[in-house]
Amino acid sequence: MIYLVIGLSLLSLFLLIYLVRLRLALRNIASQVQEMSHEETNQLVRNSSGQKMLNPLINSINGEMRELRSKVVTAEKKSREVRESLAEISHDLRTPLTAASGYTGMLKDMDLTDEEKLRYLNVVEERFETSRNLVDQLFFFARLESDSLGWNEEEVDIRKVLTSVLAMYYGDFEKKNYEMQVEIEEKVMPVLGDTDAVKRIFSNIISNGLAHGEGDFQISLRKDPETGRFCFRFSNRATNITEEDAKHIFEKYFTKDKVRSTSNTGLGLAIAKKLVEKMHGSCSASWKDEILTICITFPEKELVS
Which has the closest alpha carbon to 184: 153, 132, 219? Predict the structure, then answer.
């Protein structure tokens, strides 16, 4: 009997010591977490007590801390992008509005001829139209980024859409005395997507080429025999960029126009890329011998018989 009592006493003492050590280990973990919450550190909780049963708890805490730090980094990146975007937007809008304000002031000169007044009014109208287009693109991009853009899943006749967009820009081509070499495959199957989105994709690419390209355009829409996808290919001369620039032209706010004196926000091609990817397509750009080529591919949507 005495041996049983001694055994139970020793067991109780062992359990007491174990519980004390466990309590100290937990207090140490809590202390580490508290210190890390007040400091910017990449350290993780350590099991300095050697209590193996605490490893699952420590691993769980460290996992949560890694995820939290990742979210903080992402939030800081987003915050930085918002600040940069606001600076870009402010600059983009200020440029044409400042010009319009200057010409408005000049119109107050009573000595101006009717011809001069008309010319200045046309400039003011052009600058305000530029501002309107900038706001439209920026607003559209913001909706696209936040996934709040309405989207229709439907069969889109991309041949018909491309033809209508080219007709829309016919006057701009004539004004610049540019020729269009167009090759559109007769049997183009419909793709699954949004008609307005496809129209904006083509429009943004063509308007970008008109604004920054030089000379004649080569435009084609045909099926790639290797991939089975329809490819919209757009090429024209571009002497103001490099091969390295071509790798970045789909990035938002990318532009070679450092002073941003025109309606160029660098968002047109970024919007086109996002819309194409939303339709499960792909974008690529290449530059060789001063010719910029943009290729947009759309997956084929089989017709229902």
Answer: 219
CA nearest neighbour of 267 among 142, 146, 93: 142
Of 237, 252, 162, the residue nearest 199 (C-alpha): 162
- Which pLDDT tens digit goes with each residue over 239-293? 887 888 888 888 776 655 443 444 455 678 888 888 888 888 888 888 888 888 8
Shared-domain flag, residues 289 and 169: yes
Is the whole model's pTM more than 0.70, yes or no?
Answer: no
CA gap 25, 22 in Å, rounded: 5
Q: Which residues of 69-91 are buried (b: 16+ CB within 10 A; e: fewer)?
A: eeeeeeeeeeeeeeeebeebbee
Residues 111-168: pLDDT tens digits? 778 788 788 888 888 777 767 767 777 777 776 666 666 677 788 888 888 888 888 8
Is the domain of 175 the same as that of 218? yes
* Rounded distance between C-alpha atoms, residue 262 and residue 211, angstroms: 9
- The number of distinct structural domains making up the chain is 3
Asked whether 179 and 216 are in contact (CB, 8 A), the reply is yes
CATH number at residue 132: 1.10.287.130
pLDDT at 197 over 50: yes
Same domain, 161 and 103: no
Residue 80 lies in a domain: no
Helix axis angle for 55-106 and 114-145, nearest 10°, is: 170
Q: Which of 254, 215, 260 is nearest to 238 (CA)?
A: 215
Contact 32, 54 (CB under 8 A): no
Q: Is residue 82 part of a domain?
A: no
Domain end residue (candidates: 73, 100, 133): 73
Structural domain including 294 reads 154-298
278 closest CA partner among 214, 172, 196, 212: 196
